[in-house]
Structure formats: structure tokens, C-alpha cells
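Anyone? Bumping this.
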Amino acid sequence: MRADLEIIQQWVKPGHHVLDLGCGDGTLLDFLKRERNASGFGLEINPDHITTCMNRGVSVIEQNLDTQGLDNFEDNSFDIVLMTQALQAVRRPDKVLDEMLRLGAEGIVTFPNFAHWRLRWGLALSGRMPESESLPYKWYNTPNIRLCTFKDFEALCRQKGIRIKSRRVVDGQHQNNWLARLWPNLLGEIAIYRITRENT
Amino acid sequence: MPDSLPVDSVGVVTPQTYHFETPIELACGQALERYDLVVETYGELNTDRSNAVLICHALSGHHHAAGYHSMDDRKPGWWDTCIGPGKPVDTNRFFVVCLNNLGGCHGSTGPSSTNPATGTPYGPDFPVVTVSDWVKSQALLADRLGIECWAAVVGGSLGGMQALQWSLDYPERLRHSVAIASSPRLTAQNIAFNEVARQAITSDREFHDGRYYDFDTLPRRGLMLARMVGHITYLSDASMGEKFGRELRDQAYKFGYDAEFQVESYLRYQGERFSEIFDANTYLLMTRALDYFDPAYEFGGDLSKALAKASCEFLVLSFSTDWRFTPARSEEMVNAMIAARRKVSYAEIDAPWGHDAFLIPTPRYTDIFTAYMDRVAREVGA
């Protein structure tokens, strides 16, 4: 099993109502439905992913976070709002974080670390924008327009009064890696953050 | 009709008439003592009766959704693009039922049928029926066919409204509700267009207060105008532009008021043809049923409260250039379902054809519809 699914699953309680922003082909929601009897919806814009979700019985809504926002969802209408590998692709990640914690008591966010040593090394050595397993695009066609590092993200959370309940770091294959746990901002490729509002 | 049937056609089909002798109480307070429903079915009902799909028709539709009535038919049924072997509503897996709704003019009891009380056509005495009344009569038909629970109730436009109403009136009798290019209620603009259509009909001198049958005539002019107005709302500006542009029938302007532009002659032709085959009283009735549809009304306008009793899963689809029932109307429905925590999937399909897009098999539409119905089929073991 993918390590990130395993980790996220531990934070979802049986019967939780979840919203998955950028749900892809519905793998995570399908997994949570089966393993945790979770209900909820995924939002997606990729037509093929939407079709796959519908075929596997995952409730999916075609909705673009950048242009349509999340106004159609009510405050505190979910137990958990998920966003895996999509935060770096929205125009205003800061506002999306606010929205996640408006809709849900908790948020789970995963994104690729732009300070991973291989990316640093690549940029230093070649002087070109780095590419990697988790970032397999050219600078001009990448959907990842808001890349950041773990430190950047944590600074933003502090500034916004968002409390980080847990952080788990995995490698590009979503596997646990003890080195990455030791020195995350340099050796971690993907982090899984569990966040909540400061006063909760 | 070509010399041989297409392989993905349900083939030659024969409608059946079901007689109902038990009175049906209608929303308006009146009852119909007895009535007929004309029905077509495609595919086979499986042994545990779990694979039945109900297709609900739109404003001018009827029971003939797929296949041909004879080898001489020029065109197949109105939704043949989506119903048949290997099509989204796959007749190799589903038992598909489509009927002409009560008040229709294609064989089910309606204004042009004989009123048993008078021995003459009902005409204006036929009660105004609602979407809920239709759903009730469809449930009685399901009883007759031995269908306890539909795998899915599916419809486009006014048909989608019936699919939604089913989820509220008989929540335990359907697993999936599929509403395509539909709306949870008409807007003032929608009602306004309907009113123009009705005025066109009722102001025709041949209308005779709806008793034109007694005068051996038809309000052709009025029905033609009604259809012309309706037809404009089914297309998009772009699709009309592509089809007709400013093309003239002859080379030059004639400085008169005959049909000079292709679009004019097209609309006149469509309107005239429709006025010969459709009943004007049925047109009035169907537009009124549209106007009245508003399941949120008794919940203070809150559709999510109405949906609290629904238990099926929903698929909602809209089309980008549909200005009759815009994507925003579908989203209104979807948002109410989200708020009510119902299971719902939604997509807006990019298609240039306006409201009519629900009848036209564009690739993404077909993909989504097929993927969803495939899952429904797997779920019911079909």
C-alpha cells in the first residue's frame, strides 16, 4: 500500500465526511470509503479523472478551485478536507488553506518539497529549473505554479495561525524513509501535514 | 431507415398499451377514472428484476426512445444515440422502459383522448398534470411490470425533473437518478418563453378554447409559432450561426417579408411539421407542468431540505452552451445535494449545441454517461 494512503487513513475516523480537493482518479476517496466507511466528495477538473471516479463509484464534482472557489460549500460541513499534491497547482494556496479550515475541522495537505537535496543540487549544478519524479515538468508547462519548501509552508501556517498537528515525510515513491525524517527539508520529497485552526 | 439495421440499434420495436382501471388522484385535486399508458421496452428484465432503467421524456417526447417501428422508418427513436447495445444505456445489460406520459398525444391518455363522461375528446377538460403526477403513474406502471426498484431513472430536460422527483416521492424505489440538462425549477425567463408559446396557441382562431377537435380543425398557426419560439431556446447562438449563418435561400434580398434567410425557412418548416403531429392542448399541458415544477417550494425554497428524504445516488450533467437550463441551474441542484449529504457526481460538458446537446453524442458526454451506467450495471449485477 502507498505509505501516504496508510498515513492519511490513520487520521480519518470511521464514518467521517471528507472533501478531497483535486481528487484525481478517486484512489484516495475510494480507499477511505472502503477502509474507513468515509463519505464525501472529490473535486476535480481533469475530464479523464472525473470519468474514472464516476466509474468506480466515487462522488466527484467538476469544479475549478481557481475560477469557481469553494463558496458553494457551507462552513464546517466536513470532518476533514484533503488536498494531496494539488496545493502547488492552485493560484492562491494561502486562500485555499483558509477555505479548507473553513469547511472542515481538520485539513490534510501533501505537496512536493522544493528544497529536496536533489532539486537543490540540480539547480546549483546545471543552472536549470529542476525536474524530478514528483515534478516531471518543464518550467513553461508545469501545472505546479506555487512550489514551496516545507519551511515555507510551515512559515505560512505560523503566519495564518494554523496549527500543524502532525507532519510525516515520505520519499517520491510515498515510502517512509528514516533519513527524510531526520532532515526533512533537505531529504524529504513529499510531506503529509495534518492541520487545524489554532484555537481548536 | 437504411436497408439493414445498425448493429448498435435495438432493432424494430412495438409499443404496448397498458390499461389502468383504478382511478389516479392528481395534484390538482381531480382524478382520472381510467387511463392508458403507451410503453416501449428494450432488453431483458433479469431474474432478480434489478436491471430496469426508466427513461423519462422531455416536453415533446414520447415512448419511442430507441429503435425503429418499421423498416420504412426514416429516423430511429428520439434517444437512439444513447440507448442500444453497447451504448451508454446498454440494452445488453439493462431492461429499458420508456413511456408516453399522461397528458401526452402519442397514445397515452391525454387531452385528445375520448372523455368517457362525454364521449368526446377531453380538450381543455383534461386535468393539468404535474411532474409528481407523472412519477406516480410511472410507479404504477413499474408495479404492473413487476419492478420493485429501478436501477436508474434517467432523463434529459423535463425528463431530468422526473428523475429528481422520483428520488423524493419514491426514495426506496430507485438506486440512481440521472438528471441531464435539467433544472430544479424554471426561472422567470423560462416561464416567459412558455407563456409566449401558450399565447401563440390560445390566440389562434382555430383553437376554439381548446375544443378544436369538435370543429374538425387544428390551431396549426399557433402551435407552429410555439414550436418556433421553443426551438430557438433549444439551440445556441453559435450552433445556429454554424448551421445557417446569414445564408439566404436566393442570392439577393427581395425587400419583402417571406422566408429569405435559411434560418427562417428552417424554423417555419420545423414549426409546420410539428403542428401536424403534436397536439396543442398537450403542448399547453407540458409547458404548465414545467412551470409548476419546484420540489423546493414546500420547503421554503430550500431544495436541500426536500432532498433529505432522497436516498439514491445522483448523476447531474450540464452543457456549456445550454441557455435554456444553464449549468448554473444544474449546479443549484448539485449544491443542494451536497448540502443534504446525498451522493452526487457532476460534470459540465463542453458542447456547442445548446440545450439540444443532451440528444447529441459528443465524446465526453458519451464517455461519462457510459462510465456511470457501467457502474450502475455492475452494482445491480447486470
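Late reply, but here is one note on the structure posted above: The radius of gyration of chain A is 16 Å.
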